[in-house]
Write a structure and sequence with these properties.
globular, alpha/beta
Length: 279
């Protein structure tokens, strides 16, 4: 199934992923029209149990009207999971689902089995059990990309939000994604409204090898998108390296040139995807 996108950036390269409470249908269209790369309508954490039926209906009605977005569904151990999938299974404009609290590859496959063939599943890792099962989850046929539910993970493990404390779970998601040939994982959100903190956190996301970040507000998207993309200076450097060594590596002098060329080619590709020009 061809997956619709909510912006000009394909979901395997999307940087900013905005969570929008499904209890606020008046915000759906504005979210899609913002600068975020992808929108996720949230009928899990953002919705109290009693309000889930109405929130689910609001999401379905909006998608049936021809709009497109991802939907965060409830986890597979809840009674809401089957209801979510039954409601979404016939919607052609569904970009994909984010499975909350994923803890096994079989949960991803069971989710995919209730949706049209080819529907993409973002597996959200939010617990110690989920982290331990990350390689299995990443290798599940229906897993499209991994995401880190950092807040719930900290609550489950008692770990702090300090970069050192979070280095292991982030690294595990990155390594598992790479080993399974998935796109880079999506990091958890920054709750602080301070742009300097968001910029710092986004730079950390990139340094850990993650290539996306959850957002709680559309205003966070420009900062996240900027920090998770090459700078004009990076593009200038990559052009110089490629000119020196050649696209095909014809100018490579020794083995130490190969990593530089690979990095330069990766930067050039990302610059083309995100429309970034050299200085």
């Amino acid at each position: 199934m061809e997956t619709p996108v909510t912006s000009g950036v394909a979901p395997d390269r999307a940087r900013s992923w905005l969570l929008v409470p499904a209890t606020k249908p008046e915000a759906f269209s504005a979210a899609v029209e913002s600068e975020v790369d992808a929108v996720i309508l949230d009928i899990e954490d953002a919705v109290a149990p009693a309000a889930k039926p109405a929130a689910r209906r609001a999401v379905v009605e909006w998608l049936e009207a021809g709009n497109s977005a991802w939907v965060r569904i409830n986890d597979a151990t809840t009674s809401f999971w089957a209801d979510d999938l039954a409601a979404l299974s016939g919607l052609k404009s569904l970009a994909g689902v984010m499975l909350a609290k994923t803890e096994s590859g079989s949960q991803v496959e069971a989710t995919a089995a209730r949706l049209p063939e080819g529907t993409r599943v973002l597996a959200l890792i939010e617990s110690a059990m989920g982290l331990e099962a990350t390689p299995e989850i990443a290798r599940a046929d229906a897993t499209f990309r991994l995401a880190f539910g950092s807040g719930d993970f900290r609550r489950d493990t008692g770990m702090s939000d300090e970069p050192l404390a979070m280095a292991y779970p982030r690294s595990r998601l990155v390594v598992a994604s790479r080993a399974a040939r998935l796109p880079g994982p999506i990091d958890g959100p920054t709750l602080a409204a301070d742009e300097a903190i968001l910029s710092r956190d986004s730079a950390l996301t990139l340094s850990m090898g993650m290539s996306g970040k959850l957002c709680m507000r559309s205003e966070q998207a420009p900062t996240v998108n900027r920090e998770l993309a090459p700078t004009p200076g990076d593009v200038s450097w990559s052009n110089e390296v490629i000119e020196d060594l050649g696209v095909d590596g014809a100018g490579v002098r020794d083995g130490s040139d190969l990593p530089r060329l690979a990095k330069a080619m990766k930067i050039r590709e990302a610059a083309e995807v995100f429309g970034i020009s050299a200085d």
